[in-house]
Design goal:
The chain folds into two domains: 38 residues; 102 residues, TATA-Binding Protein (2-Layer Sandwich). The chain has three helices and five strands, in the order αβαββββα. Helix content is 55%, strand content 19%.
């Protein structure tokens, strides 16, 4: 076997491995992007009563800079003007969650811009849930009124 043919075989093997590696990375990237683009609910604990949970939700929203757009028992819609975000907070005696209300114009964004927008929304919803849980814990420690 000539040195040139063994080099050719070696190069084909390296190229094949490189292409397979790139294909695997591309597939992993697509799966990762799809997972990152979905924004599920952000659950949080509830207080010992619906009234205490409602008060903690209002306090958490206010302290994190959110503005309440509408409020009904167990359902609050609020916006965070600094980041142009809207969220729905639903709760009852047993469970609670925060959902991001996506704006209609998001479909015009590039995939990269949409992913960045969803990372921002996810971070602020998580911070809001943590703040609400803080107020829920405080409410449950205070005596019944």
């Amino acid at each position: 076997m000539s040195p040139l043919s063994s080099l050719s075989i070696l190069c084909r093997g390296v190229i094949r491995n490189l292409l397979l590696s790139l294909l695997a990375l591309a597939a992993a990237g697509l799966v990762g992007c799809n997972g990152a683009e979905t924004l599920g609910e952000q659950p949080f604990q509830v207080a010992s009563s619906l009234e205490r949970t409602s008060g903690a939700v209002r306090d958490g929203l206010r302290r994190n800079g959110w503005v309440i757009e509408s409020a009904e028992p167990g359902n609050v819609v609020a916006r965070l003007d600094a980041f142009d975000l809207r969220a729905r907070i639903e709760f009852d005696e047993e469970e609670a969650e925060i959902d991001w209300l996506k704006e209609p114009g998001l479909s015009a964004l590039t995939e990269e811009a949409l992913a960045a927008r969803e990372r921002i929304a996810r971070r602020h919803l998580r911070l809001l849930a943590e703040r609400i849980e803080y107020f829920i814990a405080s409410a449950d420690l205070s005596p019944e009124e």
